[in-house]
Amino acid sequence: SYLYIKIIVMNTALEFSRRIYVSTNFSCNLNCVYCFEKNKNDIVFNVEEAVSIIEKMLMEKTEHGTKIKLHGGEPFLVFPKIKQLCETLWKKQFPEYYHFSVTTNGTLIHGEIKEWLYENRDKITLKLSLDGNRKSHNINRSDSFDRIDLKFFVRTWPKVKLNMVITPATLLDVCENIKFLHSQGFTQIISRFSLMTDWKQCNLQKEFYHQMLNLAEFYLDNPAIEPCEFFSYDISWVLADESFTALCNIGNCRAFDFQTRKYYPCHMCFPSVCGEKKSRELERIEMKECNEEKEECCICCPFINICKTCYAENYIMRGSVSRRDTSLCAYQKIVFVVLFKYEYARILKMEAPTAHDVQKMMAIQKMYPVIKEMEEQLENG
C-alpha cells in the first residue's frame, strides 16, 4: 500500500489556514499530452494510515480551517478508498473545520460516484481539468470531452474551478475556448501554459497576441464575468525593487512520500515524476533562485516580478532552479502586455478607483514605453 501526504501551513489569512495533500494513486485512464506523471503504476494509498495522520492534524484547530486535497493520477479510479477515507473522518468529531477537494478529469463522475458526490457536495468539492471546447480538449486529453458531464459540475458546485492547460496545438483557440467555458457556466478558469513542453517550434506570437486582445475585449464588455487566470497577475508588483519576484511556492511545504518514506520539497520532486537520479539531486539543492545561474534575458526582463516559475520543473528540464523555460517567454510576455492594456481600460471606466487601482496605474505609467515597443513589434512582426 502507498500513502503520500503533503502538509502546507499558511501564514496569511487565505481561504484555509492549512492544506493537506493526499496522493491517492499513480494510475490514470487518460494519456494527456502534457502529463508530467510519466511513471504510472498500480500503487494506491493506505486508507487506515491516511486516517491516522489526518486525525492528528484535525485535532489541532487553526484560524481558517484545513483543506484536504486528494489527487492522483485520476483519484476516482480508487473511489471506494476515497469514500472510505471521507466517511471515516466525517463520522468523527474534530475541533478543526475541514473540507475535501479532489482534482479530476471528470470522466468517471457518473452513476454511484455522481450520486455520492452530490449528496456530500457541502463537504467535498471537485476541481475539473478541462482544456476548452470539444476540439481542443480532445487534442490534449485523449478524446475524453464527451465522457464528462459538464452540467453536473456547474449544478453541483456553481463556483467550481477549472484547470485549463494550453498547448502549442490549442494556442490559436484560446479566446474561443475560454468563451466557451464561460458559456457553459464555469466562472473560475485557471488558464496556464503546459510545462515540460517543447514550445521552441511554436512561432505564433502575433496570432496569440490577437487572441489575447479579443479575450480582453470580451472581459471589458462583460465586467460581471470573472476573468481567467491570465488576467489575475497583480501588475502593481512591477513597482517593487529587483529583489522582489513572484516566486515558486516550493518553499512553503514539505512533501512526504510513503512509497520511499522520505520528505521532498514538493511532489514534483518525487521519483515517480522526475526519476530517481533527479529526485535525489532535488533533495540536496537549495530551492532559491540565483542571479549567476539565471538567463540574461530573465535578469533584464521588466516583467520578472510578476513572472511565476516552478523551481522543480526548471531543474528537471534545465539543470538549475534558476533557469526558466525561455521558449515560453514570448507568450508569457504577450499575456503581460495585454494584461496592462486591459487594466488601463478597466480602470478608466471606473467612477471611483481604489487605492490598489491607483497603484496599478502607476505601474502602467512605469511600463508604458516597454508595452508600446512590444505592441509595435507584435503588430509589425
Task: Please provide a written account of the structure.
- The protein is of the alpha/beta class.
- Strands 7-6-5-4-3-2-1-8-9 form a 9-stranded mixed sheet.
- Residues 6-13 have low confidence and may be disordered.
- It is 38% helix and 13% strand.
- Helix 6 (174-183) links the parallel strand 6 (161-166) and strand 7.
Our Rg estimate from Cα atoms comes to 21 Å
* Helix content range: 25-40%
Poorly predicted spans: 6-13
Mean pLDDT: 89
| Count of beta strands | 9
Shape descriptor = globular
Strand order of the largest sheet: 7-6-5-4-3-2-1-8-9
Strand content: 5-15%
Helices, by number, come to 12
State the order of secondary-structure elements, H for helix, E for strand: EEHEHEHEHHEHEHEEHHHHH
Q: How many strands, what sense, and barrel or not for the largest sheet? A: 9 strands, mixed
End-to-end Cα distance, whole Å, is 56 Å
Q: What is the SS-derived class?
A: alpha/beta
Helices, strands, pairings?
Layout: E1 4-9, E2 18-23, H1 47-58, E3 66-71, H2 79-90, E4 98-104, H3 111-119, E5 124-129, H4 134-140, H5 150-156, E6 161-166, H6 174-183, E7 188-193, H7 205-221, E8 253-257, E9 262-264, H8 271-284, H9 296-299, H10 311-318, H11 329-348, H12 355-380
Parallel strand pairs: 2-3, 3-4, 4-5, 5-6, 6-7
Antiparallel strand pairs: 1-2, 1-8, 8-9
Helix pairs in contact: 1-2, 6-7, 7-11, 11-12
